[in-house]
Amino acid sequence: MENLRYELGPTEPARGNRPAALVGVVASGNLEVLLERGEARDRCIIDVATPAHGFADLWAAVTSDFVARSAAGGLRITINDGGARPDTVALRLAQGIRLMERPE
Amino acid sequence: MRDWNAKGRDRQARREAGGRLAAGKFIEPSKLVAFLEAVLKPGDRVCLEGDNQKQADLLAKALCKVDPSKIHDLHMVQSGVVLPEHLDLFEVGIACRLDFSYSGPQSARIARMMFGGQIELGAVHTYLELFARYFIDLTPQVALIAAVSADRAGNLYTGPNTEDTPTIVEATSFGKGLVIAQVGEIVDQLPRVDIPADQVHFVVDAGRPFFVEPLFTRDPAAITETQILTAMLAIKGLYAPYGVRRLNHGIGFNTAAIELLLPTFGERLGLRGKLCTHWALNPHPTLIPAIESGWVEQIHCFGSEVGMEDYVRARPDIFFTGPDGSLRSNRAFCQTAGLYACDMFIGSTLQIDLSGHSSTVTGSRVAGFGGAPNMGSDARGRRHSSDPWLRAGREADPEGNPALRRGRKLVVQIGETFGDGNAPTFVERLSALDLADKLQLDLAPVMVYGDDVTHIVTEEGIANLHLCRDKDEREHAIRGVAGYTEVGRARDRKMVERLRERKVIQCPEDLDIDPLDADRSLLSAHSIKDLMLASGGLYRPPSRFRNW
Lengths: 104, 548
Fold this sequence. Notes:
By secondary structure, chain A is of the alpha+beta class. Chain A has helices at about 55-70, 85-100, and strands spanning about 1-10, 20-25, 30-35, 45-50, 75-80.
């Protein structure tokens, strides 16, 4: 297991007021994403635990694109990866943000 | 004095030689090998009916058993190289030269044999191209074809998988060649006549149906959320704005996802009746929910699909059916329909380069083309107008005189940025080029040329290549939807942003697509069983797809 941490920003503050959201599942080729509030409003912290070693630069690219494109400020995001492809990771992150915006 | 009927006399001699081993038109299966040795000559051009789906398998096995010292140097001209026997012929020295279209299941072996010099390749064709050559410079001397049944006169019933048969028989029979058919049974009265007896010279009763493969069944259970997202992009960002009513779909999971989203996502957008009403398409099981919910008006088919027979029979307004009620397919006509009468082709591919050329060649496989290059090309002989065609033409040439401006067919490549085994879909250099070098081919096997492609759709967005004004823009439009492949990561972000402002690239958020909709619950069927239920039990999935 490889553990990676990305402290990203500046980014737009996340919308909505749901305290936390969970999308996806830990399965082969999939991933689980937990989003929680509590970080600085223009920062986003992403922790990744992945079984696939050697993809740190790819994770850096996906996560930095994510905060550039989404309102992810104030979020701490924890990813449990099951060896997902980057397109699946990007989709799950986008889904997580959208879920945080929805009323509970 | 020139003999003006040498071909006719040659056929007559073959008929007499074969007739000595037959009872009238009918050959006993036990005499088939001797019969073939009697009617064939070394160097003959032979069409051994290998279609996309149905196979003249009994005749293929018999042809492999002829004595190569008597029958050799055959030139095989057939659309599908599908059965092992199709290549065994070359291994044992019966055949030497090959012109074909598609070789899916034999793609690795055919490449090895070409490389080893066992096969002298004429060319890899598209279907329509090979059929055209049957009438010009590749007319078969002998055709070995497959049908469901024959009557005592030799009329043939092909069943729903008519496919290539009428085209092969037309060229061979009227070109003074000999037509030999294998049938599953001999009956007194045929359900309908697909091939008239006077075009059929000999018939062998195989006593069983020909081999046919279910090639177009896509299990909804295997559709991914990324494919659903991509399908939403295609519907909302392409089908809707262009108002595409007449189209052809490829056979991959991406287009299956689109078919399954029409009754849900498409319905929500109020698009029923406005899109996807007329099709050139095989009877895809995944289209059942759209047909049942009233999206589809008419479908013409290249071939059939195993298990769809009763469903098609019960929907005669939608499908082309005979007086017996069963489907009449025709590959040549449907290919022509897809080329000239459809406004959009959308299909998946395995590799796309920075010019937009796409290819299904990976590693050392020669899978051939099938029909995609016909469907996936602009028909420059087209002269009738339609809204999508005019709009695409306007985008490609905004300054041109509208009355003199060609319309353009929408040719769309759809896929995820990474394919099976995490292989990137976007590449700097197509593997097809390496293959062409290795096999010393004149042309690299390109499925769809970049100048025919109008759009590329991935989970990242839609690239509209018509709106690009130079090579650099085009390259960046492609990089812009190439995701996290190396090609995608080498993008110039500022350039991509500018292209996005001009709507050359449209992302899911630009089209107001909610990523939470990219969920399997959006599919109108989640499994093969759901498709069966949606058909009211009329669709009978082959056993390999029954997992309940």
